[in-house]
Backbone:
């Protein structure tokens, strides 16, 4: 467990911050990664420690402060709002993909079992459930994906 | 004086004036129910859909989308395709491919197919939520003709009121009333998600469901037997039904004819890799016999789920087989209650249920008066020899017009693709049109046996519904080389007694 905390150092302090101001709120786990390899590691560790795992693939933030992907920018606040309701034991892995990586038709995200075809995409890992593109900025749809069955 | 100002009415989202929560409640989230709900919401109605699957005795269950998507047309066509691929791989060496047919992996196929189905279940959930159709994964039944009581799988109850109610619950397979049937038998509800290889299989029944299942099982290398009480495909054209049977026998499917199972017993439990053994006792010609199988699949008929919605609470009229009599506008004997899809007496086909669902919604909420045409609905049976038809069987045409008033044109055909490998089974390929002599030889029955039957029949059916005559079929120039072109050069009549065997050139 200290190994995981060391790797996701930022996350550790983020959660700590929330515990300080929201003692009654039990938070889901939020992880941020920046490459396919990091995603695989995060997914593997969550598989064993979390009951519900979601993976969001979204365009990275550029120097402008906004994502290179307009649909992703639109989806961000919606996902953030819906994620607040995720139960303890749930985990959301956000993978930021930069534009050159995504535009390469041979990129690992497309070719993997994820069969990623567009960004943003949110997948409920271990199921056939996902939302793509414009669906990710519709609160009722994201809420439905995040629901426990 | 003082004027009393009425508070503005809350926006209920309802289209019409009535005191109920929903404009429309649909019971059944299958082909017909979903089409009706989605069309209604497009027209501004406030709609809810109830869908619930009672698990099979094997505890098999599935998501929203109904029989077609989950345990019918879709997985059936995919498994049928899987079995055809096996045959094509086998014959590919004639075309120069150095391929070798290896054993089929049942679990991999089921995994692929179920993955596709589940992604479709989810897409339906997204579509309903996006279109603001309220979806309840709950078992609904009548309290009165505007009030439904529903239960979820945990037993929690809900009461909902609606102005119009559409029944589209479909049906489920029957089990015979014999010892061991529900304990040890499976049905089409189970076969498409069976985790392990079925082993030596007995399909009981002569329905298209039994023959389609037996057909793809056999094509996938499963030791397959079909047990039938009397004729194959009752209600279908007899010549075509017989040819399908012959083709299946020539493909290695075993038939036990004039037989009825009387008992199923498990004589050996499944143990690791070795499957269970079931002893089937059956009577044939007054004698009793037994045979052993690993899987017994019953496809002896289906019953509409009408009795499960508490129909007596509203005095709904329905037949012993569950079918609900309706007007040509799908209205039941209860004024605000409608019925469509497999629960009414009509061809049990997805596109027909979808069409009637959509048109009903348009009439209820869109001011339309268009009715669904239940005549000349084309169909295809996906047996190993595929069979497409539109209109009347020869027997039905004779009954309707009299034998002297119909002319039957028919022919055999051999797909060009198959000529490279020689396949004696191809003698069963067949084309037939049934014409009414006093009506300018209008075509009232179209029948095709051969590859890609759905594709061939779909196109020609347009001619049938537009009243095409034999002369129209002759006027059409065929595309060569195809199987469909046989319909443009039909010459031999059944009446002439001439042979239709294809001679070697």
Residues:
């Amino acid at each position: 467990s200290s190994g995981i905390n060391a790797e996701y150092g930022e996350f550790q302090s983020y959660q700590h911050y929330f515990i300080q101001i929201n003692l009654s709120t039990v938070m889901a786990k939020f992880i941020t990664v920046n490459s396919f390899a990091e995603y695989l590691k995060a997914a593997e560790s969550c598989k064993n420690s979390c009951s519900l795992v979601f993976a969001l693939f979204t365009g990275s933030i550029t120097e402008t402060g906004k994502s290179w992907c307009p649909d992703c920018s639109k989806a961000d606040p919606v996902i953030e709002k819906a994620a607040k309701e995720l139960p303890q034991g749930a985990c959301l892995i956000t993978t930021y993909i930069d534009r050159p990586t995504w535009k390469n038709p041979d990129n690992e995200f497309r070719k993997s079992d994820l069969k990623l075809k567009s960004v943003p995409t949110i997948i409920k890992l271990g199921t056939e459930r996902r939302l793509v593109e414009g669906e990710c900025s519709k609160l009722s749809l994201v809420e439905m994906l995040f629901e426990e069955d | 004086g003082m004027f009393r100002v009425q508070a503005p009415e809350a926006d209920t989202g309802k289209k019409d004036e009535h005191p109920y929560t929903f404009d429309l409640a649909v019971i059944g989230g299958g082909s017909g129910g979903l089409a009706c709900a989605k069309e209604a919401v497009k027209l501004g109605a406030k709609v809810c859909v109830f869908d619930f699957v009672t698990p099979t005795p094997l505890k098999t269950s599935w998501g929203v989308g109904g029989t077609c998507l989950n345990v019918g047309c879709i997985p059936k066509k995919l498994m049928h395709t899987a079995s055809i691929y096996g045959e094509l791989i086998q014959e590919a060496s004639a075309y120069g491919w150095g391929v070798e047919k290896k054993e089929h992996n049942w679990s991999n196929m089921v995994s692929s197919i179920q993955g596709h189905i589940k992604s479709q279940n989810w897409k339906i959930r997204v579509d309903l939520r996006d279109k603001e159709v309220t979806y309840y994964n709950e078992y609904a039944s009548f309290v009165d003709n505007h009030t439904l009581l529903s239960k979820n799988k945990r037993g929690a109850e809900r009461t909902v009121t609606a102005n119009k109610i559409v029944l589209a619950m479909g049906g489920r397979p029957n089990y015979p009333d014999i010892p061991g049937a529900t304990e040890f038998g499976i049905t089409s509800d189970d076969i498409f998600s069976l985790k392990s290889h079925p082993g030596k299989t007995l399909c009981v029944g002569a329905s298209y469901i039994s023959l389609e299942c037996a057909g793809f099982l056999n094509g996938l290398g499963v030791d397959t037997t079909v047990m039938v009480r009397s004729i194959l495909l009752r209600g279908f054209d007899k010549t075509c039904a017989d040819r399908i049977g012959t083709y299946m026998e020539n493909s290695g499917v075993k038939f036990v004819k004039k037989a009825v199972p009387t008992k199923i017993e498990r004589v050996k439990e499944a143990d690791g890799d070795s499957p269970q053994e079931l002893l089937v006792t059956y009577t044939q010609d007054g004698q009793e016999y037994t045979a052993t199988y690993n899987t017994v699949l019953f496809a002896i008929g289906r019953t509409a789920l009408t009795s499960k919605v508490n129909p007596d609470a509203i005095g709904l009229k329905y037949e012993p087989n569950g079918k609900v009599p309706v007007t040509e506008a799908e209205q039941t004997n209860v004024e605000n209650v409608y019925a469509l899809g497999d629960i009414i007496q009509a061809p049990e086909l997805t596109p027909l249920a979808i069409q009637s669902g959509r048109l009903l919604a348009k009439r209820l909420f869109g001011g339309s008066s268009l009715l669904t045409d239940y005549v000349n609905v084309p169909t295809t049976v996906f047996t190993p020899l595929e069979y497409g038809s539109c209109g009347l069987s020869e027997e039905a045409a004779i009954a309707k017009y009299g034998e002297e008033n119909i002319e039957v044109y028919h022919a055999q055909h051999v797909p060009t693709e198959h000529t490279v490998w020689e396949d004696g089974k191809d003698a069963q390929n067949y084309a037939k049109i049934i014409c009414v002599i006093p009506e300018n030889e209008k075509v009232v029955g179209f029948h095709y046996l051969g590859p890609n039957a759905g594709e061939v029949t779909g196109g020609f059916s347009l001619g049938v519904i537009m009243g095409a005559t034999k002369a129209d079929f002759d006027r059409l120039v065929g595309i060569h080389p195809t199987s469909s072109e046989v319909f443009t050069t039909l010459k031999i009549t059944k009446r002439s007694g001439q042979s239709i065997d294809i001679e070697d050139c």
About this structure: The two ends of chain B are 104 Å apart (CA to CA). The longest strand of chain B covers residues 157-167. The mean pLDDT of chain B is 95. The interface with chain A takes residues 115, 118-119, 121-122, 125-126, 129-130 of chain B (CB under 8 Å).
